[in-house]
Structure formats: structure tokens, C-alpha cells
Task: structure prediction
Amino acid sequence: MIIPWRGWLLCFIAGQVDALGWLHFEAFPANMTGNTVLLSAFLVRGDLATAWLHGATLLAFMGGVVLARSAERASTRPWPGQALAVLLLLAAVLVPSPDHTLYLMAAAMGAQASAWKRFGSWQFSTVVLTSSLVKLAEHVVDGSSPAGARQPERREALVLLPAVLAYMAGAAAGVGLSVLPALPFAQLALPVMLLLLVTRWRQSRVSGVVTPAPRPYNAQAGLFPASGPLEHGSCPSSLPNSIASSLRRPSR
Result:
């Protein structure tokens, strides 16, 4: 089993950034569910300034996702989006305005959420815990079967539990760093260095479903490809080639 330590470390970073964002701005750079709730609550109360703070944080997060996804699509590789997350968090360290610091932190977390989704054969979010908690609880139930058929659920539970604990540890570290002199220079230095470490360290294995390109139909031999997705007008490769060839003949 591949150990997704990069995913756990990214959860640690998100927990730390979220804690610092809440302590200094009372907004979450990574947890968009909390910002959505607070945006609605302050709109109802008529506190438009605070509502705008959470709304702008949501927009900054989505902007980070859009930028990271666009960078990946332009290069067909994941590293541009990952490098963008590092640059955005580094900009949050260097920017002089506290308001811009929060928005850059949120944009960096959005880029992180878009750039890192799969770790070996495992896939989980590194910026939100709700889906991971749901899966973890389900796998605890499913994996409690006495039969040995529930080993995948047990293994995934062993992956998700450290992710949740890493997020909690990162939040605790963020509270500890909040006693340092000033945000963002000293307090965001550790998240930046950890994110840079994750980006530079080459992933040992990334698994995914690769669909082979269909081979063209051999009209002279009357043969179909042995594998590959079906196209309009083609016949299943499981049919004998003689039958498939007759089905392909145009009607007279």
C-alpha cells in the first residue's frame, strides 16, 4: 500500500492556514463551508462589511481553483497548478496589506485543492474534512465485517484517519504560531516551506484509469480492434470477427 504522506502533509498545511485565518481575520482560507454559512449569517444581520469579507474570501478561493486548473490544462501536467499554490502562499507572506493576505491565503488553498486530488491509489480532499469524515465513518462500519472481503474499506479508513488528525495537528500548530511577532512573515513561513517541499518532492506513483485509443477498423481484413471504446457504428470486440464483419457490411 502506498502511503499518501503528501496528502497528510497538505491537510496539515490547510489546518494551519485555516487556524491562522480565523485567529487574525475570523475567516477561513480553506474551509469554504464555514465562509458560506458566515456570509449568509452576516447578510441577514445587515453587517455588509463582514459579509463582504467572507464573500471575497470565497471568490479568492474559487479564483485560485480557476488559475490552477487553467495552468494544468495549458500544460497537461499537474506541476504548474502546484507551483501556483506555492507562489500564492508566498505572495501572502510578502504582501504588505492584511486584507490581501487573507485573500491570497484563500487563493493558495483553492489552487492546492485543485492541484492535489490523488495520492497514489488514494483520493481525498486536502482542504475540507466533511467528505473524509463521511467516508471514514462509512468504512468503519463496512470494514467491521468479520469476513475478509472488507480489506479495501479498512485500508482506506487507515488512510483517512491520519488525514483528519493531520488537519487537527495543523490547526494546533497554527494556534501555536499565532504567538509569533507578526502575520504573515513569521507565522506563514512554515506552511510555505512545507508546501514547497510537497511540490518539489516527486510523486512516486500516480494511478489513474487510462483509456486506450481505439485502433482503426481494418476494412480489408474485416477485423475489429481487440480492445478500446466503441464508436458509433462499431460492434463489440467479443463478437467473432466473421459476424462482426457481416454486421459492418452496408445493406443493399
The two ends are 58 Å apart (CA to CA). Residues 215 and 225 are 6 Å apart (CA to CA).
